[in-house]
């Protein structure tokens, strides 16, 4: 069945909002808002448009900085690539006589200190809240599975309008959530964030050392 044109318009709005949500300038305020919403007890992205957008926003943001929860070798390589991108921007800004943007001055940058703070104060608290978010979503899905089979998109739209997309459209099924990893295990729901992201992330800040700074200085000079 073809998706109605007005349904496509709603999806386009969602995609634009997700891209804009990767701006970390208000990350701490946004994280506080997420904590409050998840703690209210009535969080339901299957029925509440604002909750749906909130869930999508945080999963998208976590994906955008997902290297922070990867094993060390992957995390280090992506960190170095990102830093080089920032420094290249700073070089252009310096050449144009413009003020340098944050993190863009290669002559005054400590990679070890920067990454340690980023992981401890930005990434880890975010993934801890995503564990709660995953658990709430999984509980909602389990409740829906106990009820009658899901209705079609057209019937959903006729009942709920276009403010809320069908939950099946945004939350993968259990089969889709199964991930083949190098550890040969699968996960669904909160277990994925808890057992993989939260497991990897705390080990990364201590691994950054002055040697990392020296290696980067040699690579980027």
TrEMBL record:
GO-annotated biological processes: signal transduction
Keyword tags: Hydrolase, Metal-binding
Annotated positions binding Zn(2+): 64
Entry's Gene Ontology molecular function annotations: 3',5'-cyclic-nucleotide phosphodiesterase activity; metal ion binding
Domain PDEase residue range list: 1-157
InterPro entries in UniProt: PDEase, PDEase_catalytic_dom, PDEase_catalytic_dom_sf
Keyword Kinase in annotation: no
PANTHER family: CYCLIC NUCLEOTIDE PHOSPHODIESTERASE
Protein name as it appears in the record: Pde1c protein
Species the sequence originates in: Symbiodinium necroappetens
């Amino acid at each position: 069945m073809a998706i109605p044109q007005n349904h496509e318009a709603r999806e386009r709005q969602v995609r634009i909002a997700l891209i804009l949500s990767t701006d970390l300038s208000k990350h701490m305020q946004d994280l506080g808002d997420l904590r409050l919403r998840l703690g209210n007890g009535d969080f339901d992205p299957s029925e509440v448009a604002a909750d749906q957008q909130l869930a999508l926003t945080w999963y998208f943001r976590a994906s955008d900085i997902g290297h922070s929860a990867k094993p060390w070798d992957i995390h280090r390589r992506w960190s170095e690539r990102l830093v080089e991108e920032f420094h290249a921007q700073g070089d252009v800004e310096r050449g144009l006589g413009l003020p340098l943007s944050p993190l863009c001055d290669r002559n005054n940058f400590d990679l070890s200190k920067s990454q340690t703070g980023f992981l401890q104060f930005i990434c880890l608290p975010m993934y801890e809240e995503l564990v709660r978010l995953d658990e709430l979503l999984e509980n909602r899905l389990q409740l829906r599975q106990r009820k009658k089979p899901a209705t079609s998109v057209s019937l959903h739209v006729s009942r709920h309008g276009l403010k809320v997309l069908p939950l099946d459209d945004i939350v993968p099924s259990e089969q889709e959530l199964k991930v083949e990893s190098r550890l040969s295990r699968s996960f669904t729901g909160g277990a994925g964030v808890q057992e993989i992201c939260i497991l990897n992330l705390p080990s990364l800040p201590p691994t950054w050392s002055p040697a990392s700074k020296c290696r980067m200085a040699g690579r980027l000079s």
